[in-house]
Design a protein that fits this description.
The structure is a single chain. The protein is α+β, with helices and mostly antiparallel strands. The protein folds into 2 domains: about 70 residues, N-terminal domain of TfIIb (Single Sheet), CATH 2.20.25.680; about 200 residues, 2-Layer Sandwich (Alpha-D-Glucose-1,6-Bisphosphate, Chain A, domain 4), CATH 3.30.530. The chain is built from 4 helices and 16 strands. The strands form 4 sheets. Strands 7, 8, 9, 10, 11, 12, 13 and 14 form an 8-stranded antiparallel beta sheet that branches. It has a 3-stranded antiparallel beta sheet with strand order 1-6-5, with no helix packed on it. It is globular. About 0% of the residues have low confidence.
């Protein structure tokens, strides 16, 4: 294992459907890399010295690592479930810590104020009690029994409804949301955020979805999710400090921040430091 355990994690570095032979120059944790291949086929990733990096093709994306991952990429069984539409949303560049991007995705309380009349609306601002745990058997952060009123919970929703949520953090720069599926109440829609750390205060965010929605045009699904994240971007880019504080005394959490508190504790326990701030400055 590397001295920095985050170097041994898997990261998204491009869409499998948009590979090109000439390659796409990008970066990973401050180091230049080149992603090349055939669209929909195999991929190759090299670092600045021409060294070949490990490659996985999962969930519509190319994944790589600067180190030597000791475990496979986290499982998303919904990606292979019949009837789901798999949506590659694209990429959004954000001037913030990659860990801040994940934490914001876990935050429910900002819905009425940032995503007004879509994911939330006043006076429905209270975050009800929910459960958060670090599941030791899989070493992941989970938040369950989350409920929140939303005027338009999904593109397929007709009118407002109380939406049920579950959040899962299986990797330091990945978060998965399971939420009420309006067309199929017995199922969960899946919305994931895969984050590529370009630098400690800069990242590319690759949203991905696995939905039960046979009616909404693909373009509308993509635009809806891009709208949500672009609303988040201005907030993320103005957060202070820019890096994610891991010292519990640096920011004062509220009851609504239980998932964030568990995420920070989990990062600190596993020794993840890239994009984090350990002490007040």
């Amino acid at each position: 294992m590397s001295a920095d355990p985050m170097r041994d994690e898997w990261y998204p570095v491009g869409l499998a459907s948009r590979l090109r032979r000439a390659g796409r120059a990008t970066a990973l944790m401050g180091e230049p890399i080149l992603v090349s291949g055939e669209a929909g086929g195999s991929a190759r990733v090299t670092d600045g010295a021409g060294r070949e990096l490990p490659v996985l093709m999962r969930y519509g994306h190319v994944w790589t690592s600067l180190g030597a991952p000791e475990r496979d990429l986290f499982a998303l069984p919904e990606a292979g479930q019949p009837g789901r539409r798999l949506v590659d949303v694209g990429v959004v560049r954000v001037r913030c810590s990659p860990l801040r991007a994940v934490e914001n995705f876990l935050d429910i309380a900002h819905f009425p104020f940032v995503h007004t009349d879509i994911l939330g609306a006043e006076p429905h601002t209270e975050v009800a009690n929910y459960k958060v745990e670090i599941r030791e058997d899989v070493d992941e952060v989970w938040a369950t029994e989350v409920e929140f009123y939303q005027p338009q919970a999904a593109k397929s929703a007709e009118g407002g409804l109380t939406t049920r949520y579950m959040y899962r953090v299986p990797a330091p720069t990945a978060s998965i949301l399971y939420k009420t599926c309006p067309p199929r109440p017995s199922e969960w829609d899946v919305i994931a955020l895969f984050v590529q750390p370009l630098a400690e205060d800069l990242c590319d965010v690759w949203p991905w979805m696995a939905l039960f929605d046979d009616d909404t045009p693909m373009t509308d699904l993509i635009q809806f999710q891009q709208l949500i994240f672009l609303q988040d971007r201005s907030i993320l880019e103005n957060q202070i400090p820019r890096l994610l504080p891991l010292d519990p005394g640096m920011e004062i959490p509220t009851r609504a921040d239980l998932t964030s508190v568990a995420y920070r504790r989990w990062l600190k326990r596993r020794g993840y430091r890239y994009g984090a701030q350990l002490v007040a400055q």
